[in-house]
Amino acid sequence: MNAPPKASQTAFRHRNLLGIADLSADDISLILDLSDAYAQTNRERRKKSDLLDGRTVINLFFENSTRTRTSFELAARRLSADVINMTVETSSIKKGETLLDTAITLNAMHPDVLVVRHPESGAVKLLSEKVNCAVINGGDGAHEHPTQALLDAVTIRRRKGRLQGLTVAICGDIQHSRVARSNIYLLQTMGARVRVVAPPTLMPPQVERLGVEAFWDMEKGLADCDIVMMLRLQTERMQGSYVPSIREYFRFFGLDYHKLSVAKPDALIMHPGPMNRGVEIDSEVADDFGRSAIQEQVEMGVAVRMACLDLLTRNLAEADAA
Predict the structure, then answer these.
(1) In the sheet that 134-140 helps form, which strands lie side by side, from edge to edge?
(2) Are 7 and 36 in contact (CB under 8 A)?
(3) What is the pLDDT of residues 202-238, one digit of tens each?
């Protein structure tokens, strides 16, 4: 089995990974550096290490997810952890007591890491306060999705060599996107300039307070950008009509080569997935292998989640030894 990559001497002192807003630039750099090492390991023929042998990881998803859950499962298995996947129908879950009862039940199983996705913002933090294991936020409501921002960052850094000084345009459904929020926090912490581009109905009120520049026109927002990050329309979180029609939305806010032409010639195209082709992004643009990093984002997802599991379980090992 492969030996795990070595982390830097900088300590990761967080018990949980609940959001990017909780992390310093040093914390983020540590995760990205270790993720880079795991990305290289994952391209070797022998990908598995025994780092988490004897550890138990539970994936507890109150929302459907294929990409994130599978990525966490693969990451844990490559580190030799025992993995339990628990998918809970949201219709059968009530707020408050039911979630706490779930926490009590899981705590009795003595897991080492709990990966949680929940439709309510703050639910993962609440659950983390009731269990004895490490907790990773796999996405909570419209609040945060920290590992998505981390995998986006390592993808950008591998392609561009840096984060500092880049101009990143995050485009689409900013209002309902936890991916947008986590990316805004991370990119600004690491010295990037962030723009958000959306129709007024999908732009959070007073979004400029987050330190971003807001645009309601794609061509103005994309001008001279290094990175163009498209977002999925979060229709499951919408109550009422936010766009006149899908056709109209694509006309004004879908990424095609005409809109992309105002960005830098080597601008990187990103999308957290799943993609709605012809809604947020034109198929030809999405499949432009010279400029699109969408498939690399999926690959980096496994590496980032391996790094997060590695760092959090190292802290558990230190606590056990104390």
Answers:
(1) 82-87, 56-61, 113-118, 134-140
(2) no
(3) 999 999 999 999 999 999 999 999 999 999 987 665 5
User: Which one of the listed residues 43, 48, 95, 251 is annotated catalytic?
Assistant: 95
Which residue has better confidence, 243 or 26?
26
pTM (predicted TM-score): 0.93
CA separation for the pair 49, 41 (Å, rounded): 10
Active-site residue (options: 55, 117, 178, 259): 117
Q: Which of 145, 176, 232, 259 is catalytic?
A: 145
Q: What is the residue-wise DSSP string for 124-154?
A: HHHHHTT-SSEEEEEEETTTB-HHHHHHHHH
Rounded to the nearest 10 degrees, the angle between the axes of helix 294-321 and helix 146-160 is 120
Task: Check: CB of residue 76 under 8 Å from CB of residue 57.
Answer: yes
Per annotation, catalytic residue among 67, 77, 237, 277: 67
The DSSP element (H or E) to which 85 belongs, if any, is: strand 82-87
Over residues 100-148, the pLDDT tens digits come to 888 888 899 999 999 999 989 999 999 999 999 999 999 999 899 999 9
Residue 117 annotated to the active site: yes
Query: In the annotation, is 145 catalytic?
Result: yes
Please indicate whether residue 251 is annotated as part of the active site. no
pLDDT score at 305: 98
Contacts of 14 (CB under 8 A, 6+ apart): 22, 23, 27, 312, 315
Q: Can you give the pLDDT at residue 9? A: 52
Q: Answer yes or no: 147 catalytic.
A: no
Q: Are 243 and 189 in contact (CB under 8 A)?
A: no
Amino acid sitting at position 146: P
> Is 159 a known active-site residue?
no
Q: What angle do CA 33, 38, 43 make, to 5 degrees?
A: 130
Candidates 41, 55, 68, 232; catalytic one: 68
Cα dist. 99→68, 136, 268, 274 in Å?
21, 16, 40, 28
